[in-house]
Amino acid sequence: xRSLVLLITLLAGCRPPADSPVRVTYWEKWSGxxxxxxxxxxxxxxxxxxRIVVEFLSLSNxxxxxxxxxxxxxxxxxxxLWLNNVYSFADRNALTPLDEFMADTNWLARYVPVYAxxxxxxxxxxxxxxAAAVTGLHWNKRLFREAGLDPDRPPRTRAELDEYAAKLxxxxxxxxxxxxxxxxxxxPNWFVWAYPQWxxxxxxxxxxxxxxxxxxxxxxxxxxxxxxxLEQIKTFSSGFGNFNSPQNPxxxxxVAMVVQGVWMNSxxxxxxxxxxxxxxxxxxxxxxxxxxxxxxxxxPRGAKHPREAWEFIQFVASHNPHAKSRDELRGGELLCFLxxxxxxxxxxxxxxxxxxxxxxxxxxxxxxxxPNAIHxxxxxxxxxxxxxxxxxxxxxxxxTRTPEEAVAFxxxxxxxxxxLHRRSLERRR
Amino acid sequence: MTTFERANLxxxxxxxxxxxxxxxxxxxxxxxxxxxxxxxxxSVLQAPVWxxxxxxxxxxxxxxxxxxxxxxxxxxxLSLPLGMAVALALALLLNTGVRGLPVFRTIFxxxxxxxxxxxxxxxxxxxxxxxxxxxxFLRPVLGSATPxxxxxxxxxxxxLVLMSLWGVGNSMVIxxxxxxxxxxxxxxxxxxxxxxxxxxxxxxxxxxISPVIYFNLIMGIIGSLQVFTTVFAMTGxxxxxxxxxxxxxxxxxxxTAFYDLRMGYACAMAWVLxxxxxxxxxxxxxxxxxRVHYAS
Lengths: 429, 296
Fold this sequence. Notes:
heterodimer, A: alpha/beta, D-Maltodextrin-Binding Protein, domain 2, 12 strands, globular, B: mainly alpha, MetI-like fold, 71% helix
């Protein structure tokens, strides 16, 4: 009898009292300074009210862990996914549509159009942007000066890019080995997927894959391997270190121009302080061409506290429009300030605009607002498509396939994959 | 059955129960489930939908599937015989009664206990085209024609084969145990009959360690067809860089399941790999049947 009383007492003790705060679990991909920045926003949210406590967990492979947890019926309440995941997860019914939480239909209008657009898919909102990013051409001004180029005038077209690249390339006079490259299409290879669109192409037309015949971008890739010598490029680039190190080829002055994102400045400050560089749009026929990306917050299907999760998401999507000091920064603006990124919001507070740690933040703001800013196509098989484009790129860059062969191969695979995906969607309709 | 035997059976089963439960829940159930899923359209995130033999039919026309199988067979076909020969050669050297045998044995075995990711990082540097140790040895001979190894689609697979030899310690230890079990009087008898070193090896050593060779062969077939971690760590993910030249079967299976979210197709691939391994094992067993001698 005594043990029964003890058991009841214990069980009663386990139940949270009625007024205790709801615990919202939040999984995020970042580590290091970027995680610390998010932790600061989470702390700010937790202190701003007493009904909800967000528990922030930074972990690797957040996408795969979210898949497994969602499939197992115990997902986090909020997950910070990559943009590459969102449409694929939405097609597989892994996300909670957010429209019903939004107070009005104009809720997304707070964002710069390119960021608002990435949250929408199949007439619904699946995600909300936390930190924004946009990429542009970064050039090393010292190397420009050494090559006799105007350090304040970046290349504006692809023809100019190739011309500058040639001028910025140096070889050892004795061995002929490359000692400095102006530009290298695979450095880094993160944005290869955007090359077809950079060349004016399209990935699909809403119905079918439209990659066939788009060989121009690959011919350009091939031209670099032929012009500078495949073996010589291989030898030279095997001396490149990790992105996150002082041996990063741009930071080490081995490659004079790279396409990189707004995050690059924090790496420059850490590994190559004093590097003199500029930022501009991708050199293209379309003015202001740039590629936007973002970190997105979603509520996985089956989350225990979707309403409370939404309150937190809303906090991250907000800011203090009148902030005049670091302490007055709030929500997403604090996050983007600490991560040295551009804010996805249309409106920036005075402090954020004038005191941002990134010296070129205005350029990034313009790039994100450009009508020619693009983001990944909204396709449920995008992850596969993106890797297939990378494979085509690699095959041509390494001269193992002609541009025509590589495009035909990728197109055939993606059409088959799309057909399979379409059938899969129909089966579940 | 006596009461004592029954009690013994009950106790025995009770002791085995944790293991039996573990085996059924974590091995048997997933294996059976994967067979079912291989006939389904299944993304992990949604309930599986029966799709008949679609996954298996699709595999037939999937060029990347065949490429991954080809790459894997190439790797296994090179690394397995080479690895077995190197392991046996090392074991023979260590079995010559060399002084400080335990020290050498430890040294040769050491690479097998180094974490795979750590040894992969080490080999990344050995294979580096510009600063790599390997090319610094080759440069005096080949000049500027040294391969870029992992950055070159032609040399990436041979590089991985070369690296796989570094992990022969395991099978070497097994060979060594086998060699030490060969009775010395057989060598004496062979010597009296006038056999030299080669004849002793061919007619005494090899037949007597043939069960060990057979064991290492089967384990080698299974292991080399499922190679994953080193390649994943050294080529930067499951894409088989550069240009799918190191896209091995297990890597393609992994990316299909967890990147493309086609778990049904991946399960079908796993079962095909299972059949391939079974067939190769049966073939190896048949070929070895008359050559394996077990001491009565």
